[in-house]
Write a structure and sequence with these properties.
The structure holds two protein chains of two kinds. Chain A is an all-alpha fold. Chain A has seven helices and no strands. In chain B, the strands form five sheets. In chain B, strands 1, 2, 8, 9, 10, 11 and 21 form a seven-stranded mixed sheet that branches. A six-stranded antiparallel sheet of chain B has the order 6-14-15-16-13-19, covered by helices on one side. The chains are: A mainly alpha, B alpha+beta. Chains A and B meet through α1, α2, α5 and α6 of A and α2, α8 and α9 of B.
Chain lengths: ~130, ~475
């Protein structure tokens, strides 16, 4: 269970806004999500995939706009993401945190990000 | 068909299984150790959280306990078990914790505190246990030490099982320099030298019983083929407080009213502080300093060297605000509070996994609230410019100690907190008879001969201190009696 290229493109637009990153960096995070979904246990993968779907396709329910999140104006998308983050529903709020947590692993693993923050690149063992 | 036969079959290779295997091998018994997870190769070490979760953790790091909230429960799943991926913390079981656990269960006669202490002495020599020296405290530990000193709270450098630690701050990814004295570099190779056969990638599903005697185990290898290993003297279950009860349950063994029940945790949460000077979480021991001033109130506090990939999850802000928050990462100290929770949950086997159910009680949440306030107070005492409590509905950030009062109103709903646990207990707890627990004070499963549970699942309750040392000492003592 992974993400199609079009699903990656759509969620990358959202992740770029969440992390304040370029679309290139966000696309790498989306590719990481695809790889993660393919390796994760089925139950976890199903949950994460459902959140990706929901974040992509539910602006109609959260901000009343019948478009995918990637097609919203930046201002509306920011309002939409904020609704997820501050939702009164624990399931929605935690669903978004799940996406953010997994996406952060893809974000923090990128050498460009690590160098920017002064953290060395990930290296293999040096026994 | 039987693939192997030995005097003792040890199921699990973590703190308890490795210790039991070594003791049995030292006494000349023929031992097979079956481990569900893979062997840890050098190329698996220090690869960052994602690869560590994927290669070395149960359910690839996604195991959770479900209840009113979702609580991640982290466990190693590799040769050496959780000892490979923990913070190398070694805590001698204090008298009061012993009294609350072994004493309260009526085990003092069979498992005297002094007998555990003798085994702890031995383990500490074997695993080079010593307090983290000042050079390994790192910015994270040094700040906690300074904050505690200013407040007059009792704290100390954490005693760790490491040899010539390089302070790479990556204990949780399997020590990249093999300096952590975890089971895959200590007791397991020693047991193998004495003839024990270590079989990674072997997941035990069931224990076979002839009459009332455990005679063999069966299960599945990682490649999908089935195996069966016979035991002449018996089977030692040491597969963790999640897997041991599941194996008993699937095998129809042990008193049903207790197997998988009484699931106890040390749930934990963290509070981050941002300082004017660099902290550099990635330098020094992953966990180097702790505060036990409040242990008698039900919580203790430790530094937690969170990697970049995990540090930003609960930080507020999106877009440019997120970037500003993460730009503080080099100046961020992260401290955790771990509580001795009174809640009990359950572990039950499901298809291909275990179902964990757990909800903290109100009293547990009050401990969290008190702990989060104490951590925040200590951050400010240490000079933090900003503190992020990370609790939904509470203040996103505090900028002065004058604002600490805002934390007194933090929610007591576990759904508003970010809670995690890696210490799990008591799902096959010991008791005098089958009405009180799953195993007796010798670790033997009530109603079955030739079958012992020697891991954290046999502990009468949670301890309130980091459990690896107690688990190993108990396994050593009880395995000596089997040998």
């Amino acid at each position: 269970m992974g993400l199609s290229r079009s699903a990656q493109r759509r969620i990358a637009v959202v992740l770029a806004d969440v992390f304040g990153e370029s679309l290139d960096v966000a696309s790498a995070i989306a590719a990481f999500l695809d790889g993660y979904l393919r390796r994760a246990p089925p139950r976890a993968a199903l949950g994460l995939r459902a959140v990706v779907w929901g974040v992509t396709w539910l602006p109609i329910a959260f901000v009343g706009v019948p478009l995918p999140a990637s097609a919203l104006s930046p201002r509306t998308r920011a309002r939409y993401i904020d609704r997820w983050v501050h939702s009164k529903s624990y399931v929605l709020r935690e669903g978004f945190y799940l996406l953010k947590a997994i996406a952060l692993m893809g974000w923090g693993a990128q050498d460009a990000v690590r160098l920017r923050l002064g953290v060395g690149p990930l290296t293999a063992a040096q026994p | 068909m039987t693939d192997d036969v030995a005097d003792f079959v040890v199921v699990g290779s973590g703190a308890a299984g490795a210790t039991a295997a070594l003791v049995l091998a030292q006494s000349g018994r023929e031992v097979v150790v079956l481990e569900e997870g893979p062997r840890v190769r050098d190329e698996d070490r220090g690869l960052g959280p994602t690869e560590s979760f994927m290669r070395l953790f149960r359910d690839r790091g996604t195991q959770v306990a479900m209840g009113r909230s979702v609580i991640p429960v982290l466990q190693g799943r590799c040769l050496g078990g959780t000892t490979v991926v923990n913070g190398a913390i070694v805590w001698r079981l204090p008298e009061d914790a012993y009294a609350r656990s072994f004493g309260a269960a009526g085990a003092a006669g069979a498992i005297p505190h002094a007998a555990l202490e003798e085994r702890m002495d031995c383990i500490e020599r074997d695993l080079s246990v010593a307090p983290a020296p000042d050079r390994l405290l790192g910015g994270n530990g040094s700040l906690m030490k300074a904050g505690a000193a200013k407040l007059g709270w009792r704290g100390h450098a954490i005693r760790r099982n490491v040899l010539d630690c390089q302070g790479s701050g990556r204990c949780l990814e399997a020590c990249p320099t093999r300096r952590k004295q975890s089971m895959e570099v200590t007791y397991l190779p020693r047991a193998a030298e004495l003839g024990a056969r270590l079989l990674p990638d072997h997941e035990v599903e069931r224990i076979e019983v002839v009459g009332s005697r455990a005679s063999a185990v069966s299960g599945r290898r990682a490649d999908g083929t089935r195996f069966r290993v016979a035991a002449r003297a018996g089977v030692v279950l040491a597969a963790s407080a999640v897997q041991s009860p599941c194996i008993l349950w699937r095998s129809g063994l042990g008193p049903r009213e207790h197997v998988g029940k009484h699931f106890r945790l040390h749930p934990a949460t963290a509070v981050a502080g941002v300082y004017r000077d660099p902290v550099r979480l990635w330098e020094g021991a992953t966990q180097s300093y702790e505060i036990d001033e409040f242990r008698h109130e039900g919580f203790k506090m430790e530094v937690t060297g969170l990697p970049l990939e995990l540090a930003g999850v609960r930080l507020p802000g999106m877009g440019a605000a997120f970037q500003r928050s993460m730009a503080d990462y080099p100046n961020m100290a992260v401290w955790g509070v771990q509580i001795r929770a009174e809640a009990e949950g359950t572990v039950t086997p499901a298809r291909g996994r275990a179902d964990l159910a757990y909800t903290p009680t109100r009293a547990d949440m009050e401990r969290f609230r008190a702990g989060a306030r104490r951590l925040s107070e200590m951050h400010f005492a240490a000079g933090a410019a900003r503190v992020y409590p990370g609790v939904h509905g509470g203040p996103e950030v505090l900028t002065s100690a004058d604002e600490l009062g805002q934390l007194d109103g933090l929610s007591l709903d576990p759904r508003d907190w970010s809670i995690i646990s890696s210490h799990i207990f008591s799902t096959c707890r010991m008791g005098a008879d089958a009405r009180a627990g799953v195993v007796g004070f010798d670790g033997a499963v009530h109603g079955t001969t030739g079958l012992w549970v020697l891991d954290a699942s046999a502990l009468p309750t949670n301890l309130g201190v980091n459990p690896q040392h107690t688990i190993m000492a108990m396994a050593m003592l009880l395995a000596e009696r089997l040998a």
